[in-house]
Amino acid sequence: MPYYEENPHQITQADMVVAIPSFNEAEAIGRTAELAARSLTEFFGHLKCVLINCDNHSGDGTKEAFFAAPGEIPKIYLSTPSNLQGKGNNLRNLFEKVRDLQAQATVVIEADIKNLAPYWIKNLGEPLLKGAGYVCPLYVRHKYELTLTSSIIYPLIRCLYGRRVRQPDVGDFGFSGKLVNAFLDLPVWTESVQQFGIDIWMTTIALHSRLPICQSIIGSPKVHRLKDPYAHMSVLFRQIVGTIFDMMDVYADFWKQVKWSKPTALYGTDAHDVETPLPVEVNMEKLHEKFLQGFDKYSDLWQHVYDQTVCPKLQEIRSLGLQHFSFPTQTWARILFDAAVAYHRAEASEKERVLDSLLPLYLGKVLSFVKKTERMSQQQAEEYIENECMIFEENKPYLVKTWD
Length: 404
Prior knowledge:
The chain is of the alpha/beta class. Helix content is 51%, strand content 11%.
């Protein structure tokens, strides 16, 4: 059971849940809860619905703002202890409550989305009631937004588990009651999963479950409060990529049998006009500088971790300079595969260093992507990413061979 719960309506059963994870979101959560209640009333009024705020014992009035939000849908507040933070811990409380409520469908939305619209929740929830086990949104994204997803997460997850889920870690999703036991019973519950790793952890479990997966087209950008892209990069990178590598251990027998990938069903293809994504500025000089700094710090480790063909190639890339910088996808795929294998074999105390040594190489890959696609349209950049994913799939036998 959650550490702390307020359930003023004494709700014991629900068909449909909308959940809002939070930590000190008093300014934003009222509007989010109001729009969620409006969506449930308009689109799911025939079901028993409940709104849940799964919180980290916020001290800024988040709970009070949540309960004060207008709407006819009953509300439940859950919280971790005051000394336990992290979205993953919030969601673990949610999983337990969803199981208690025997809910058919749950939609999770982040508290600080500035442009949330009721139809978003409709598009994430309806497929669950029609048989989907898991629903990922497809937001409108600028080609330089979510570069961690386009450079590492999407190519790796697609290559490993054989499904093309373009945005598997964007923080919002829907899941059916059939997945709750899998979420609660999986033995992997690391510190990373308790924090930033939770989204990709859930998607990976869903892909392994063989339940139907769906991508729901939102047609809008997802607008948050402004954040410094470098502020938490090393922590976020370590936790998300580390979670992908941890799950490769758990599901090795599964992904080693997967060959090639299949498209994933789309929902909401004709619902709304597609908006233009917000512009994203990229500091290419800073990316190049961070890439070069990696050689001073990690060259010795790279020699140990990567295939003998990789390090000479990295030296070649280093010598190109910013103007002619290019990072071949074949080399990048080999690097990620080798890093996964090194992480798999490393002692627990060394795993973090393997991840940290990968970060400057990732920044170099982002720089290369920006230079390759700066004159491309959004659609052309997407096609470029799809071609990169095919290179990962073509080279997967190398990963299977070296893993064992």
